[in-house]
Task: structure prediction
Amino acid sequence: MQEYDRLFIGGEWVLPRSGKRFESVDPSLDKVWAIVPEGDADDIDAAVAAARDALAGPWRHTITPTRRGALMLKLAGLIRRDAERLAELESRDNGKVVRDTLNEIQRSADWLTYFAGAADKIEGKQIPYRPDALAYTRREPVGVVGAILPWNSPMSLYGWKLGPALAAGCAIVLKPAEQTPVTALELGKLIEEAGFPAGVVNIVTGFGTVAGAALAAHPGVDKISFTGEHSTAQKIMAAAAGNLKRCTFECGGKAPHIIFADADLEKAAIVATHGAFRSTGQTCSLGSRLFVQRPAYEAFVATMAERARRIRVGMPLDRTSHIGPHTSREQQEKTLSYIDIGKGEGARLVAGGGRPADLPNGYFVEPTVFADVDNRSRLAQEEVFGPVLAMIPFDTEDEVLAMANDTKYGLVAGVWTSDIARAHRMASRIEAGLVSVNTYRPIHWMLPYGGFKLSGIGRENGLEAIDQFLETKTVVIELNEEMPADPFAS
Ligand code: ADP
Result:
């Protein structure tokens, strides 16, 4: 059993005020495997106070931006050193296969490295307002950031959330999801080892409706950076209204992945399979609606069914497994219920459709492909967050565009074609924050990422992400020493 009893607040490991702890389940075995401290509103208060103290101290006022970047690089190095161990812990906690968690934790270090390099390149502007005045802008940290993380990719998001916030000079209270709290506490140890000043990063494990809600409503928090469901984002936005917190939200998706008949279909099939089933479908960028132009459609359905059946569903720590279980029983049940909904809606089931017979204990579901799905059906409109692909035929570009955009989401989209003009037309007309052509979902520290519509607000990644952790202050200094005209003189 992995046991933790303390939260990381103000540079120290402290017991939660309530003394309570909660359990985390290994989803491949349906068994409790870890116990962690249960932070509540009192602990959030303490963490926010510690973050405010950090902002009032050296972090903001004496540590140079270059040193800030150096601390981030140190943290990135420690994460790389411990990557194997962290990956195995996350695979136990989350269920994601270890080759994915290893990749995620290494990339988290890459994210920190990229943003570390930006820490001392944040510059204001001099503005030619008047010849006899000096006007300039300062870019100042937004303040205390509440980072609320989901359970699907915790380790990637350590880099996504901490990178730009630390580069901008903010202090952070990080709350991981209750389903996957373990590696966040391990991250706290590395933050301590890296030598960040006390309170710059605070880690509070706890439940969303308690610790998360307290963070979202806290008047001492200036910004919330959240990844999770849009319905949770809506609650956070309402809670954040009290002091007009800045909010960055990255929510769900129902991405259109569009294959024109003139595309390289062999390549497209490889990428579409990964795009639809990676991480057991528990990702917001999943290419879950696969539109295929009619001349290529039937053969593509057969290929996708065949490829789905070849995916090795297995134990997370087995390095030959392609995908693991769902992270929770609740998520497994949700996916199975959508498989029933698909069948009930009359879609044609061509692969999977149930639980794998050889893995009876954990929250596993077979990679599942439905063909002839109606784009207006629930299976095509609602985010399943599981390994369930909806295939939809189309004839023309206009028709597929209308269907692609007919969704409340707008996170990512993929297009496969050999017609360059069509590629650009599609890129400009699809309503999504990221459109890829002849590849899918290129997520990278340099590329801004975020959603249109209900998929979110603001952008993460890329230099644009840092802007979301800064306030612009305008400063004007009068240079003219003459007496000003007095409008109230007569
Ligand atoms: P899911 O429903 O798939 O678990 P959520 O969007 O609820 O995803 O969870 C994402 C994160 O938001 C988690 O860290 C969770 O604890 C947190 N959370 C859930 N509800 C709230 C809330 N009302 N206020 C703040 N955070 C919350």
Remarks:
- The chain has a mean pLDDT of 98.
- Residues 2-251+455-475 form a domain with the Aldehyde Dehydrogenase; Chain A, domain 1 fold (CATH 3.40.605.10).
- The chain has 16 helices and 21 strands.
- The two ends are 82 Å apart (CA to CA).
